[in-house]
């Protein structure tokens, strides 16, 4: 048997309910031909888990463990060839199923792993059996929790920035809602690619942090004239935007079509503010393109190998061993964000913190998880277990 985290059904309307977490014992999965068994070492959270608990996500399943992102070690394989290739390696698990070869979109029904119908597992469980094709070797320069925070937000940002946004060096890009996981990855990808990055946020502190990560400047979207302010920040030799990466929706086209070049692109990976977007005739006449983008697995190898560790901008050495709390570890780079650790050994839930995008009551962890490491928008769980569950950088890996 193994331990796992699921949500427990309670009465309530979507958006008003907040399903509690429940620790369950499930059978340890058996591997089929072509599969491997992965022992989970760290799992990561996204805002998706909040939406699931609020019943604002499609296809919720109360029996499937939560979690789309995770890193583990391969402990069992189904063939000698897979054993030679994968046994004992630290791996990142792919967070989606049903999108294999078509760059334009999924071939059929596409699902994200964890907490929903269509896939029988999540990453908030001790062991996962899955096809070897759904693994990528974890980058050596990243710690386990850093690697766990890559897949869902990282792949979404990569596709939005490069596949749909077609970003190139020297271009100007606007990334809205900086502080969210996808936005932070997009920022770091764009900076590494040589673009000039501008951001929006409702927090001046987040804008300042983004500038430390390489953004040229930023404006507060709480100000009605924020697009006008942004126009004044654009470089004189290139006074327009080439691309906008947006996760809010609402009035994003109305606010930015005047800033975009002829034929500019607005890439939408979400609509957290308003599920409807106005598209005026003025945008049509400027040949503005609005493109939707979801997380795909096609670019996973490119994302994990394209940026060498030497390109990472660091603030202090990465931490590889447990440290007393409270503490803050700033660890910037192409695949990590800004971490802060909280003690949740007594089900403590951090209150809203303006530096981080998760809110009060994000997860009320059961007693077997003793620490929670959170980032701006993507966070990793790395617990010391009571008696056992997740491992905190164990000595045997």
Overview of the molecule:
- By secondary structure, the protein is α/β, with parallel strands linked by helices.
- It has 2 domains: about 1-150 and about 325-380, Quinone Oxidoreductase, Chain A, domain 1; about 155-290, 3-Layer(aba) Sandwich (Rossmann fold), CATH 3.40.50.720.
- The protein is about 20% helix and about 25% strand.
- The protein has helices at about 45-55, 80-85, 145-150, 150-165, 180-190, 205-210, 225-235, 250-255, 280-285, 300-305; strands at about 1-5, 20-25, 35-45, 70-75, 90-95, 95, 110, 125-130, 135, 170-175, 195-200, 215-220, 240-245, 250, 260-270, 275, 290, 330-335, 335-345, 370-375, 380.
- The strands form 5 sheets. Strands 3, 4, 5, 8, 9, 18, 19, 20 and 21 form a 9-stranded antiparallel sheet that branches.
- Strand 20 and strand 21 (about 380) form a beta hairpin.
